[in-house]
Hints:
The chain is 65% helix and 8% strand. The longest helix is centred in the middle third of the chain and has 17 residues, at 69-85. A hairpin with a 2-residue loop joins strand 2 and strand 3 (62-65). By secondary structure, it is mainly α. The chain has 2 domains: 8-69, Orthogonal Bundle (Arc Repressor Mutant, subunit A); 88-124.
Amino acid sequence: MSDIELGEVQSRFADLIWANEPIASGALVKLCERALQWKKPTTYTVLRKLCEKGLFKNENGVVTSVISREAYYTKKSGAFVDETFGGSLPAFLAAFMSGKTLTGREADEIQKMIDAHRKEHPDG
């Protein structure tokens, strides 16, 4: 899954599917006409490519995901941290936070995530 790369247009298309699934392929064509100004062949070409990549499936005219949006972006985020920061989440956060400040609410949300992870993985 980590080798699935989406360009900007494919990402927008994938987001449409994830937001509307399960969706009939005909309804997807109409949705893409409105949202992306695509013609029917373009929709089916891009859909076929993303099905070949293993992201979606089109069975009996109904399009659904094989990989959820959350799982896809979680995997891509992890791969980015691995490739760019040697897998170090603290190094990534330090680079991301450079020159920024957190609101109290943001800090509380992050602390809750840290606390939840610690409870689930006390040795890690």
